[in-house]
């Protein structure tokens, strides 16, 4: 059976609650670099290219190896495919560095920081571009592992339904939302991120969606 892109009415309010929670609602402004975090979502590379062309940063780093959810789509690695896509969209080759070893958000931060240092590039601020529902995890991870960086979180500014349609599988998106919500709680306990406040309505939405079976991305 083909995946559906329609959010079930019974879950819509809870999905919207999690979707809004993970959006950091940061104001985009010019920074030293744009960092595109690898994932299954090619829209990250698209939006990174758009921000570059708007003059928001002079250099891009794409970071990402592969994960079980991306190896089929990006067999040569997330960062490599992101770079190729950005070049197709008109970003000059020389403006892009790639970090090809990171397999999680913490490594995205640590290995990108190392790469920039190796190239003698001093960075005080960055726009951190990710999937919409990854923003809060990116923010809390960067604050833990790269605390001096002035980081702004950003994603393609798409409405929820349009984003789901672009991914092509509503169950995948809901599972990812639930998984990322759990990580906001669990990763600080493991020293991976700083703690984040979670409102009671977000906790309740997370619990209900988990009870409904959206557990595919839980740790």
Automatic annotation (TrEMBL):
InterPro entries from the xrefs?
Cell_Envelope_Assoc (IPR051599), DUF218 (IPR003848), Rossmann-like_a/b/a_fold (IPR014729)
Task: Specify the DUF218 domain's residue ranges.
Answer: 47-151
Q: What Pfam families does its record include?
A: DUF218 (PF02698)
By what name is this protein known? YdcF family protein
């Amino acid at each position: 059976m083909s995946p559906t892109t329609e959010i079930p009415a019974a879950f819509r309010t809870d999905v919207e609650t999690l979707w809004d929670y993970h959006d950091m609602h940061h104001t985009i402004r010019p920074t030293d670099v744009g960092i595109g975090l690898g994932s299954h979502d090619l829209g990250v590379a698209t939006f990174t290219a758009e921000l570059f062309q708007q003059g928001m940063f002079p250099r891009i780093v794409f970071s990402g190896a592969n994960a079980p959810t991306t190896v089929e789509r990006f067999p040569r690695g997330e960062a490599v495919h992101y770079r190729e896509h950005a070049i197709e969209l008109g970003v000059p080759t020389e403006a892009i560095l790639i970090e090809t070893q990171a397999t999680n958000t913490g490594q995205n931060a640590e290995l990108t920081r190392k790469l920039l240092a190796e190239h003698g590039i001093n960075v005080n601020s960055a726009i951190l571009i990710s999937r919409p529902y990854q923003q809060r995890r990116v923010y809390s991870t960067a604050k833990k592992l790269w605390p001096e960086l002035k980081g702004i979180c950003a994603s393609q500014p798409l409405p929820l339904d349009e984003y789901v349609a672009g991914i092509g599988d509503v169950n995948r998106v809901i599972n990812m939302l639930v998984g990322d919500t759990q990580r906001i709680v669990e990763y600080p306990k493991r020293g991976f991120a700083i703690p984040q406040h979670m409102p009671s309505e977000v906790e309740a939405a997370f619990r209900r969606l988990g009870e409904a079976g959206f557990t595919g991305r839980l740790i």
